[in-house]
Amino acid sequence: MGRGKIEIKRIENPTNRQVTFSKRRHGIIKKAREISVLCDAQVSLVIFSSLGRISEFCSPATSLPKILEKYQTNSGKKLWDAKHENLSMEIDRIKKENDNMQIELRHLKGEDLNSLSPKELIPIEDALENGLIGVRDKQSEIMKMMKKKGRLIEEENQKLTYMLHHQQLAMEGNVRELEQDYQQKNREYASQMPISFRVQPIQPNLQEAK
């Protein structure tokens, strides 16, 4: 028996609806890929699920923006206003400028010079000379700064050495003053002692005499 006809209406059960969406999505993307290959057609397919998730397919030889631009040209319908068109033109201009800058950068690196004429090489040579002058000026400036820092460090070192020397002299002077004060006090103390305590006669050992 053949399969029964399915009534085309919204599936109320969320699980069944998600399963059906997944199967049908794979099927329609497969059909889009087949018609693109078999018939050499430019196909672009965009699908949004009920949850807002996007699925898309585009023929390998084209892109979605190109498909939309072609649709706008052939149908006469504007998909975006003048503001978006100006924005698109600005993007194209920036891309072109970026490509030109990449080419100039390769030329400054010495790459892809065979395609240039002698006249086109002159600005590159001038730019390289100006860059070299700038580099040398920067190197000279850095060397001056390093020498200046070296002098400052040397002066600071001399200042610290001078301060340390004076501190050592001050410490040595304090030590001498303490020694002199100690000796002076000893002399004063000795002069104040009774004579009997100053000299103790040596008594003979009576036991040894026996």
Automatic annotation (TrEMBL):
Q: Where is the K-box domain?
A: 84-170
Coiled-coil residue spans: 77-111
Cellular location(s): Nucleus
GO BP term, example? positive regulation of transcription by RNA polymerase II
Q: Which domain of life is it from?
A: Eukaryota
Identify the main location: nucleus
Q: Keywords, A to Z?
A: Coiled coil, DNA-binding, Nucleus, Transcription, Transcription regulation
- PANTHER family recorded: SERUM RESPONSE FACTOR HOMOLOG
Q: What is this protein called?
A: GLOBOSA-like MADS-box transcription factor
The organism encoding this protein is: Hypoxis villosa
**What's the encoding gene here?**
GLO2
